[in-house]
Amino acid sequence: MKVNVFRYLLMRPLFYAMIGTVVSAAVMTSCKSPEAPVQKNQVERLASSINFKCPFMVDEDTRMDSVQILPDSTFQYNYTLVNQDKDKLDIRGLTNYIGPRLQHDATNSSSMKVHRDHRLRLVFQYRDRNGEVVMKIVLEPEDYL
Question: What is the pTM of this model?
């Protein structure tokens, strides 16, 4: 039986609207410094600060597991949908709903400024409770600048 994505989404609006913003906002205060560091060091510090706090529950169904700095200026957020099985989700509907919200946050949130300043490729990877990749949402710098 498939989960009705719109019912699922209406029950968890904070998760979808604020996922990128919440994580970055919680970390950004510890990442600010009076002098402008080298780009790589600033991004590495951001990743280290986030990973230090991981894993943590974003909401009742979503756990942030870690972030990774990948080649080609890619910054990946890794999440687990702790109460969901991949085969019971409307993945297309979920992706179509979450993607624009992540793009909006990346474009407009002050907590995502580091990402914009360094033109990072953003990847949001979600796994189900069994560890299977449910979806990856990729934002290129041109998508949010």
Answer: 0.74
